[in-house]
Design goal:
The structure holds two protein chains of two kinds.
Chain A: H1 2-33, H2 48-54, H3 57-92, H4 102-112, H5 115-126, H6 131-138, H7 158-181, H8 185-193, H9 198-227, H10 230-235, H11 243-252, H12 259-286
Helix pairs in contact in A: 1-12, 2-12, 3-7, 3-9, 4-7, 5-7, 7-9, 9-12, 11-12
Chain B: H1 2-19, H2 28-31, H3 38-45, E1 49-55, H4 59-77, E2 80-86, H5 89-101, E3 111-114, H6 116-124, H7 137-142, H8 148-151, E4 152-153, E5 156-157, E6 162-169, E7 171-175, H9 186-195, H10 208-221, H11 234-251, H12 266-275, E8 280-283, H13 288-294, E9 302-305, E10 311-319, H14 327-337, H15 340-347, E11 355-356, H16 365-372, H17 383-388, E12 390-391, H18 396-411
Parallel strand pairs in B: 1-2, 1-3, 10-12
Antiparallel strand pairs in B: 3-10, 4-5, 6-10, 6-11, 7-8, 7-9
Helix pairs in contact in B: 3-14, 10-11, 10-18, 11-18
The chains are: A mainly alpha, B alpha/beta.
InterPro entries (chain B): SBP, YnjB
Protein name (chain B): Putative spermidine/putrescine transport system substrate-binding protein
Organism (chain A): Melghirimyces profundicolus
Chain lengths: 296, 413
């Protein structure tokens, strides 16, 4: 009995906390988005907050912006991350490439920095009176610092995309690194025997091995950028706002009657993230991307 | 079957213990404190700890509490004060609201720094402990509680639920070397902005300061603040506000980034000002510019100005939440923070620099002399100039109407 139940008991605290905080929070959020607020004497459930949201042009504009920014961020971070991980493996010496440790630490750096610090750094560096424009001006690349393109609080969201790309690429790289690290030197030798070049080796051997992990990591990044608040808050424009910022503002705005709508936005965000996860999984399976290469 | 039971039971247990404890009445026992003589309150507070939850975004305010007030409170009354910083007072209200919902009768907050919308919400949701203002000796002795700017908190009757701690006033901040003749009215400000495109902007409401700027503009473009003091129904307000939106939209093309976006916070506007990207910033604190100069963030040539028709001012307060674990300690701390010494020190720009909540005429001769001889530096306007240009705040409902209207009439354009 004890032997059997021990593993369950051991994971119970973690599961309990998960259930309480995550599932409980989600449940509470869904309830409140349906207008359930016993404290102000409202305990009837209604879909009216979803209806108003879905019929407002603001919501769709925000959603469009949110999707654009998170898809671009994921793509940029994903491609960059893939490149970094391949570089790292080359430098670490597994496979046809040379050794170095220093670069690993360089690429790890953005992982240590919290998102809001990264966003703040982006402001300090890239605002038109920031470090980069001033430096470029001092070096003679710009006639005046204000000629630097608007990358902070720009309408398109480039500032957000750039910050996310910088921040998430190492994350993706470190998700891919263990996969690459398991490839062995002799594979490269064997590949060479069969007349493979570096590019062919990457395309035929490494890429298929990497894709499943790459898809997963990219999806995590997508789900995060889709619903995170601090970077778009600091780098976004006043209107339109990304959905998480909009929701945050409604929730904390002091007007308690707006809270159900704020939570409805969050529930929709969560729902859409799940939907995109399912979509990614399905497309992945359909094109055989999730099966991965065979190790043996 | 059995092996599934255990984790299930455990989970149920965690859920039950964690979240489902029902509400019960428990704060009534501590309210009896309101009837006890002051000596007893002081005795009960001795040797206890209190937690003061307050907005923590200003270094000099924090230092005033940590380095000046807390050690003296400990020495004089044996009450240990711990300052808990929050980035927005709203967070405390949200916390208390959640605690009320969960029926948690022993909270962690003893004293909060509060006013305006947050007080409105707290009062409406019954998040405050009780009418303790009358019970504090220093309030009775030094505070004139009949004046409207103390009795009304953004138009809301305080009913003794909170005790005035200080007064803040909206001022514009500018660089004397760049702006020779600061504007004296909103109309002049518009002229100035047109002549200096890109050198002015304001934080996007609902930022606290940005929202105050928009109120300021509302009063001047629609004929004064008096009509709003009691709130105004939506329809009439919307008709009135059309002039305000027209004013702000006229301004927009000449703002920073041509008004395509606004700084999301006062901190960002300050940064733009400190970098020289814009030439003016603002603040709901007459002494803030002086503090920023001292920290070396703002240039030495920074000065402040108010408008001829006056700028918004408000009183901010200390209050005790419904589930404060140590209301006696909180009362004693309030008493201490309202002593003439604490209030005059607070007024000194080396400490905080903001106006006191006490009535100067009720102070002793020595304290009045101390007040008169205080040198607050060039970046703070003289007290009487500020006092003459003071207009009261309006109810939270107007603030909400404005913030909502700004979004649809200005931000989206």
């Amino acid at each position: 009995m004890w032997q059997r139940s021990k593993p369950y008991l051991l994971i119970a605290p973690a599961t309990g906390a998960m259930l309480l905080l995550f599932v409980g929070g989600l449940w509470e959020g869904v309830l409140q988005s349906l207008g359930y607020r016993p404290l102000v004497g409202q305990s009837r459930l209604t879909l009216q907050f979803y209806e108003t949201l879905l019929s407002s042009a603001d919501f769709w504009r925000s959603l469009g912006l949110t999707l654009r920014v998170s898809i671009l961020s994921t793509l940029a971070g994903g491609v960059l991350g893939l490149m970094i991980s391949v570089c790292l493996v080359m430098l670490a010496g597994a496979g046809p490439f040379k050794h170095s440790r220093f670069w690993r630490h360089v690429f790890q750096l953005p992982l240590l920095i919290p998102h809001f610090v990264a966003a703040y750094l982006a402001v300090v560096m890239m605002i038109q009176t920031g470090w980069i424009p001033r430096l470029m001006f001092a070096l003679g690349f710009l006639d005046q610092p204000a000629d630097f393109p608007v990358l902070v609080q720009d309408r398109f969201g480039w500032g957000i995309v750039l910050t996310y790309a910088w921040k998430e690429a190492p994350f993706i790289a470190w998700m891919l690194y263990p996969v690459l690290y398991r490839t062995q030197e002799k594979w490269w030798e064997v590949a060479r025997v069969f007349g493979s070049g570096r590019w062919a080796y990457f395309r035929e051997i490494l890429l298929p091995l990497l894709l499943p992990a790459w898809m997963t990591a990219s999806f995590i990044v997508f789900a995060f950028t889709f619903s995170a608040f601090e970077v778009p808050y600091l780098l976004g424009v006043t209107y339109p706002q990304m959905l998480p910022v909009w929701s945050f503002e409604m929730y904390t705005g002091g007007d308690l009657t707006k809270r159900p709508a704020a939570l409805a936005v969050n529930v929709l965000l969560a729902g859409m993230a799940v939907f995109f996860g399912w979509l990614a999984h399905r497309t992945g399976r359909r094109f055989g991307l999730l099966e991965g290469g065979r190790w043996e | 079957m059995k092996k599934r039971m255990i984790p299930l039971l455990f989970t149920v247990l965690v859920l039950v213990l964690g979240g489902c404890m029902g509400p019960s009445e428990g704060t009534t026992f501590s309210r009896s404190l309101l009837k006890k003589p002051w000596e007893e309150v002081v005795k009960q507070a001795k040797g206890t700890d209190i937690r003061l939850y307050m907005w923590g975004g200003d270094e000099s305010i924090n230092r005033y509490i940590d380095e000046w007030a807390a050690p003296r409170l400990k020495k004089q009354y044996g009450v240990k004060l711990e300052r808990v910083p929050v980035s927005d007072t709203q967070d405390i209200i949200n916390k208390l609201l959640t605690e009320k919902q969960a029926g948690k009768n022993k909270g962690t907050v003893d004293l909060i720094w509060i006013n305006g919308e947050n007080f409105h919400t707290a009062k409406e949701q019954k998040l405050l402990w009780g009418a303790f203002a009358d019970r504090i000796p220093n309030v009775k002795r030094y505070v004139n509680r009949e004046t409207p700017d103390i009795r009304l908190d953004f138009g809301e009757e305080t009913q003794g639920l909170e005790v005035p701690w200080g007064k803040a006033q909206f001022v514009f901040i500018y660089d004397r070397n760049k702006v020779k003749n600061p504007p004296k009215s909103m109309a002049e400000l518009k002229e100035w902005v047109r002549n200096h495109p890109g050198k002015f902007t304001y934080p996007a409401p609902p930022d606290f300061t940005g929202s105050a700027f928009v109120r300021q503009a509302l009063f001047e473009t629609t004929g004064g603040h008096k009509q709003y003091v009691r709130g105004m129904e939506d329809e009439r307000f919307n008709r009135k506000a059309e002039k305000l939106w027209a004013y702000l939209n006229d301004l927009e093309p000449y703002l920073w980034r041509e008004g395509k976006t606004y700084p999301e916070s006062l901190a960002k506007l300050d940064q733009l000002y400190a970098n020289g990207e814009v030439w003016m910033t603002m603040g709901y604190d007459a002494a803030r510019a002086a503090g920023e100069i001292r920290k070396g963030r703002f240039p030495e040539s920074t000065r402040t100005f108010v408008l001829d028709q006056g700028t918004l001012s408000n009183t901010h307060y200390l209050s005790i939440p419904f589930n404060a674990p140590n209301p006696a300690g909180a009362m004693v701390a309030t008493h201490f923070l309202l002593s003439p010494d604490a209030q005059l020190t607070k007024m000194d720009p080396d400490h905080w620099g903001e106006d006191m909540a006490l009535d100067p005429e009720r102070l002793s001769k020595e304290d009045q002399a101390r007040l008169k001889n205080m040198d607050r530096g060039e970046a703070i306007l003289p007290s009487d100039k500020l006092a003459k240009h003071r207009i009261p705040e309006v109810p939270a409902s107007v603030v909400n109407q404005l913030e909502k209207g700004w979004k649809s009439h200005v931000a989206k354009k």
